[in-house]
Amino acid sequence: MKIKLAVFMSDKTYLSRFTDMVTVQYADKIELSVFTQAEGAAEIIAKSRPDIVLAEQAFLEQLPVGSSTSELVCFTDQKGVREWNGYQAICKYQKLSDIYRNIAAIYAAKIEAEAMVLKGDAESKKIITFFSGAGGVGASTAAAAYAYRLAEQGEQVLYLNLEQAGAADLFFSAGGEDDFGKVIYSLAMAAGSPAVRMESALRQDASGVYFYAACPSALDMAELSQDMMERMFEQLSVLSLFRWIIVDMDFQLDTRTYMQIERSYAVFFVSDGSDMANAKLKRKLDALEIMAQQREKMLLNRIFILYNRFSSKSGKKLQGSAFKEIGGIHRFADAGAGDLLKLLAQSEVFQEIQQC
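Request: output the structure for the sequence above.
Response:
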């Protein structure tokens, strides 16, 4: 995944040379944007959300502090300086490889710090949530394939389908009498801890993936209220059978969705790259940006775009979005559900997900 880097400095000659070298040597690692004045910087940073902002000392005081998830770093002409007025600092007069190494180190520390906020201590479960950018783009298949891949790698994982009309049984199978309806019932009970009943309702596919069989009726899923959902994740956190929870759920502009995004280690919106799917996805992402301004814990830079069933002939990437693209999965024709899951699980894009 590329580091989104913005550079603010007045020296146009240096900036031009720096841009040329980055383009040649680090095009696959850095997504670069450069600016020669700080006017409008707050708006630029808010819109593009770079991971790191390199700015010369004269510009730093004009850049927004605290209102952005970008890491502000002083691009100084002083050699050997690692800190300036409370900012981390990188000397611009050194080899580009050394500048990149410092940028990468700051980026890694930033991502690690954000991850700790989202996933808590080392024993906490990692929650990865998949939303559909539009209907029929294969978000559920992508989520199930990622769960399958984790299990193949020896990870303990739960695939949790919370779509109103969804069914984990489409991808995984195992014997058992109970379904997700038992989970909903146990959560609805006022007394006691439902964790034991929730664990007993779990099934495990031959791949190793844990899942809940679908409720008999989609209407049953409507009984899962926001409060019950919060309690469900509290109870899942105490179960020792798995460390990962891959959540597949409908996107709605409501509190339940926002809280799910906030508790997730990473969130993926899936599109197939069609004009209609991208238009719907853009409306959803635009709404999230507005709502994030009102919520402290919604880290928009932990939200990614994933393309599934992508065709190089008809598919297009979403234009003008500040959200990072994690990559794409091409279309597999004439593959059954089981084979499709295995094919998707081998996609390189899932390696990118594990590194996000």
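Residues 3 and 14 are 21 Å apart (CA to CA).
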